[in-house]
Amino acid sequence: MSGWYEKYYWRTGFKSRLYDRLTPESYLESMRKVVALIPDKQGQKIWDAGCGTGLLLLYLENAIKRGLIYYGSDLLSAGLNQVRTRARNLRVSDRVACFQNDITEAPVFKENSLDVVVAHFSIYTIRENHKRQQALKNMYQVLKPGGLLIVCCPSKKYDAGKIIDESCELLRARRGLLQMATKRMFFYPVTKRLGLDFIQKQLQSGQWMAYTREELTEEMECAGFEIVHSETVYAGGAYLKCGYKAIMSV
Ligand SMILES: C[S@@+](CC[C@H](N)C(=O)[O-])C[C@H]1O[C@@H](n2cnc3c(N)ncnc32)[C@H](O)[C@@H]1O
Fold this sequence. Notes:
Strand order of the largest sheet: 3-2-1-4-5-7-6
Strand content: 15-25%
CATH class: Alpha Beta
Number of strands: 7
Radius of gyration: 17 Å
Number of domains: 1
CATH architecture: 3-Layer(aba) Sandwich
Low-confidence stretches: none
Structural class: alpha/beta
Number of helices: 9
Bound molecules: S-adenosylmethionine
């Protein structure tokens, strides 16, 4: 059952739209933090590597309307279909392109061609260390010198209960008591049961990668990045790190 669940987990979530509907507020907060770290420069090109349904577009809408160009890629076409629909609904389709690819294989972008790469909760599901490392190397290769990688990955302190609690607090502060109570009663029990508990089990069993702060730094540095920012997000259950590709790379 677990093998089947793992194989079809994202695809079923994307197709049914449950992935978007059940996303906890704390996860969206992590995306807001990612977007806040993207330098505000005209005409930048950004690659959302392992973009899922393109939730990140929700927070990039204004930047795209000001000239940012967004590329989203994922293994699964079910997610990419949602990205296209989302881009149409946000009226940013002319600056959004998405395509199917495996981030551990040869990159489709030219070397030194992108300004920013975001890997928000994507590389941790790649089980083999050497493949995750290859994915990070591919991101390094396609970034311009001075380009920025923003990575977010679960930590060993991932705790489904804490993520729900933090999501409720965030919702109460942002949207008020009624919204929070509705989510807490009707949505978040399903989020926890179908999503977060399963992810926690995958992390604890080593099927997916739960990082220490040092392990994530080491993987990024091995790929060539110079770490410039590190913080804890997702109720203490994930690390958000930024690394630059040095301007004088050798
Ligand atoms: C937790 S979802 C995150 C999606 C999105 N970044 C977000 O934050 O909503 C993980 C995504 O990584 C994608 N993924 C995993 N391994 C991949 C690979 N080798 N190449 C491309 N995408 C991959 C999955 O298909 C899935 O869409």
